[in-house]
Write a structure and sequence with these properties.
The protein has 369 residues and is α/β, with parallel strands linked by helices. It has 14 helices and 14 strands. It has a 7-stranded mixed sheet, with helices on both faces. The radius of gyration is 21 Å and the shape is globular. Bound molecules: pyridoxal-5'-phosphate.
Length: 369
């Protein structure tokens, strides 16, 4: 069998809902209201209900969502915040941008997520919060992490940017901590046609504080009680997200079918497969395997027309942005090893089972050669 396989095809995902997205666009264009209007208010209600929480505040992007939660919790200079050593750099930057220090917690290499033991070992007298990331769409073990955090008096913030719709103990990602941050970057499981993000929480005070901070520190027009930011989800993106939200569970279900096929096809092959924990329903933002000779595998797949990506080739603590940090903090051997071995195979709701089979057959051939 022949044929190239795209890593994902955002155009195809937009095409699937073309009439609904076009009518959302026209509705907003003709409304004359483009920021802080009815569409955003309605989306916030709908997404809060979807997550099973009381409050949702639309913001400009996922990085701002985490940053503003930390600010709302009054976390700043002198404070330490625990973050995974192997996450996307935004989790770390949000901590740095409020003046606090990110402290790296190594993940369990089987799940790619941090654990309660890792969190417990990293707590000091300065620790104020922990940000578990549901990496690749697989929920972190929130129950045991929250237990450790509660005992130490830490706030817990979910970085749910890769986990829209995932479940843990029956609850949705976003409803598992003091507050949660989502990104609506186009390639996320729920993506806008541009940048976007939100904060969800059951804590009305956090929601109110984030809303104020995101709007120039203003709760009432021209009254600025705190030095805030400008980070708002606009009407157009809100309208697009409202059109897409009703399909999210269905798209995640398609991702689970593809993931199940990958797992079935690759059982026994010379790759390390992702582990699914028993009390979680992952949403497979990415399907990530580990291979030893990654260069060779990527080249062989590429030669066969199959696109892959790497999430992430450089751990945040190894990035130039954190060169100063790295001089003062421990190295992270697990994150380093993962950054050398992880390989993301094609995954999107628009992908077919036949395409999964094609990727697997080329991959298995390469591994055996
Ligand atoms: C995408 C992402 C973010 C940041 O979201 P943006 O909307 O791009 O700012 C944060 N954390 C994780 C884990 C992400 O994948």
């Amino acid at each position: 069998m022949n044929g190239s396989v795209r890593f994902m095809d955002l155009g195809a995902s937009t095409d699937e809902l073309r009439p609904a997205l076009e009518s959302a666009f026209l509705r907003v264009m003709r409304s004359g209201r483009y920021v802080l209007g009815d569409e955003t208010r309605a989306f916030e209600k709908e997404f809060a209900a979807f997550c099973g929480v009381t409050d949702c505040v639309g913001v400009g992007n996922g990085l701002d969502a985490i940053h503003l939660i930390l600010r709302a919790m009054d976390i700043g200079p002198g404070d330490e915040v625990l973050v995974p050593s192997n996450t996307y750099i935004a989790t770390w930057l949000a901590v740095s941008h409020c003046g606090a220090t990110p402290i790296a917690v190594e993940p369990d290499p089987a799940t790619y997520n941090i654990t309660a033991e890792g969190v417990a070992a990293a707590i000091t007298s300065r620790t104020r919060a922990v940000i578990p990331v549901h990496l690749y769409g697989q929920p972190a073990d929130m129950q045991s992490i929250s237990e450790v955090a509660r005992k130490a008096g830490l706030r817990v913030i979910e970085d749910a940017a890769q986990a829209h719709g995932a479940r843990y103990d029956g609850k949705r990602a976003g409803a598992l901590a003091d507050a949660a941050a989502f990104s609506f970057y186009p390639s996320k499981n729920l993506g806008a046609l541009g940048d976007g993000g939100c904060v969800v929480t059951d804590d009305a005070a956090i929601a109110a504080s984030v809303r104020r901070l995101a709007n120039y520190g203003s709760g009432e027009k021209y009254i600025h009680d705190v030095a805030g930011f400008n980070s708002r989800l606009d009407e157009l993106q809100s309208a697009f997200l409202r059109a897409k939200l009703p399909f999210l569970d269905h798209w995640n279900q398609r991702r689970r079918r593809l993931a199940a096929r990958y797992l079935e096809n690759l059982r026994g092959a010379n790759v390390i497969l992702p582990t699914v924990v028993s009390n979680a329903v992952p949403v497979w933002h990415l399907f990530v395997v580990r291979v030893l000779d990654r260069k060779k595998v990527v080249a062989a797949l590429q030669a066969a027309g199959i696109e892959t990506q790497i999430h992430y080739p450089i751990a945040p603590g190894r990035s130039g942005a954190y060169s100063e940090w790295a001089r003062q903090h421990n190295v992270c051997p697990v994150a380093d090893q993962l950054s050398n071995e992880v390989l993301s195979l094609p995954m999107s709701p628009q992908m077919s089972i036949a395409e999964v089979d094609r990727v697997c057959s080329v991959l298995v051939q390469t591994l055996d050669s």
